[in-house]
Amino acid sequence: MKARRKTPLDIQTTPPNLCTVDLRLRLLADLPFFAGLSPADVAAINQHFREVGFEPDEMIYLAGDPAARMFVVAEGRVKLFQSAANGRNVLLNLLAPGEFFGGLFSLGTEAYVDTAQAQTSACILQVSSDEFRKILDRHPGVAIRVLEVMAQRLQAANERVFLLSTSPVERRVAVTLLKLAGKMGRKRKVGLLIDMPLSRENLADMTGSTPESVSRAISQFQKEGWIATGRMWIALKDLVALQEIAEGV
Amino acid sequence: MKARRKTPLDIQTTPPNLCTVDLRLRLLADLPFFAGLSPADVAAINQHFREVGFEPDEMIYLAGDPAARMFVVAEGRVKLFQSAANGRNVLLNLLAPGEFFGGLFSLGTEAYVDTAQAQTSACILQVSSDEFRKILDRHPGVAIRVLEVMAQRLQAANERVFLLSTSPVERRVAVTLLKLAGKMGRKRKVGLLIDMPLSRENLADMTGSTPESVSRAISQFQKEGWIATGRMWIALKDLVALQEIAEGV
DNA sequence: CGAATAATTGACTGAGATCAACCCCCGTGG
DNA sequence: CCACGGGGGTTGATCTCAGTCAATTATTCG
Fold this sequence. Notes:
Two copies of one chain form a homodimer. By secondary structure, chain A is an alpha+beta fold. Chain A is built from eight helices and twelve strands. The mean pLDDT of chain A is 89.
C-alpha cells in the first residue's frame, strides 16, 4: 500500500462556498462582539448580512478600493496583506472563522489600505459600513467589545514591530509558528498541525524575510526534531524547544 | 554679540507641572473623543480626572505594572516603549498634548505591556480604568470615537510593520522625520523644527536601527541640505526631497 | 508519467550592526 | 568667565546576518 498524498491537511476539494443558515446564526452569536446580545437582536442583525463564497486565491477587496464593507469570516482562511513596490508582500493578518476585517475601522479613510484574499475556499459574511455603523449606534455594548478586539490587534501589531526591530529571522519564524499553532493548531499524529495551506513565502511575508531564509530556519528546526513539515504544511512537535527559541534563550 | 545657545528648541527650565483649570477643561473638550459632548458633560467628566506633573525622564508607569489607569497628555511629550533583553528599546509612540495612553485598552490584560516615560517635563491627566469604562458606558458616542482613534493607531502600527519589512534604514528615518514633523512641527528660521528633544538614539529606537546608522543617514540628509540638525534637535528644510526618499524614488 | 510549482541548498554579496576612537556641545562650578 | 567633564554625535574599520542569484530536488496534480 502506497500513500498517495503526504499532506496531513484536510483539503476541501469541493468547496461548500455557502454557509448554512444555522451556521450563520451560530457564528454571529458567537462573535466576541455580539456575545451579549439577545437571540432576537442577533437575528435582526443577521438580516443585514449577505454571504458570499470565494475560491482559493480569489481577491475579496483590493487596497485602494472604496472601503464600503465590513466582513466576517464564516468558513475558510483569509489573508490581509500590503504589497511593496519591489513585488514583496507584507502579510498583516491571517484570519480564521469568527474574525472580522474590512473598511469599517479606517473610518476617516475612504479606501481600504490593505488587500484581502481568500487563502482557502471561504465563506464570508458582509455588511455595508453604514449599516454596521448603525448597529454600533444601536447597541453601545457592541462598540466596546469591538474596541477590545481592536486593542488586542494593536497590541499584536506592536509586538510585531518589537520583534522585527530586535530579533533575528530564526526567532521571528519560531514566534510566528507558535502564534499560528495557537490560533489554528489541530492535534494530528505528526504533531500540532497548523490547519491551513502555508508556504515558505507566506511565512516570509509574515516575518519580514525571504522564502530562502525561512527555509533555512525551518530546515534547522526539522533537523532538531522540533517540527515536521512538507509542501504547504507544518506541524509542531516540540513546543517547549520552539518557545525557547522564540524567547531567545 | 554671541549666540549663547544653539538649540532652537524652547527649553522649559522651570516646569509648570500643574495645568491651569481652564487648560484642563479646554483640553478635555478638545479631545477627539469628547468632541460631541455638552459642556456640562465635559465638566462632569473632568471631575474624575486627576492631574499629575512629571520631570523629564521620569517614569509614568512600567511594563508589568497593574494596568489600573488611563492617561491623557495635557502638556509636554510622553514616550511609550518596550525594552528588549539586550538593552535595546523599541519606541512605540511619542505622544503630544491631547493624546491618550495607558492600560484601558488592554482590557483583557491585567498589566501594562509597555513603559511610559516623560520625555520633557509634562502634565498628565489620569482616571482609573474603571471610571473611564463607566464614562464609555454612559456616553456611547465616546466609545465609537475612541474606536476610530484605535483604528488609526492600528493602521499606523501596520504601516510600521510594512516599513520595517520592506525598507532600508535611510527610508525609515525619512518617514519617521516626516511623521514627527507633521505631528509636532513648528516653523522656525532653521526650518520645520520637530518640537521636542530628540536624540539619535530615540530615532534608532523608532526605526529599528542603531544610533550610528541613524547618524549616517542624518549626516547624508544634512549634506544634501534637506535638514538642519544639532544636539537633540532636527529641523526639516526640504520636505519634497525627504518625501521622495520616504516613498522610495 | 510529466508539467508545474514548492522547497532546498550553495555561493556570493551587501546593508547595516558592532566596536572603537574622537569631537563637540552644553551645563556646572570654580 | 573660563576650564572641565559628561553625554550626544560623528566617523571609520570590521564583521556578520541574511538577502540575492542560481541550480537542483521534491511534491502534487492533471
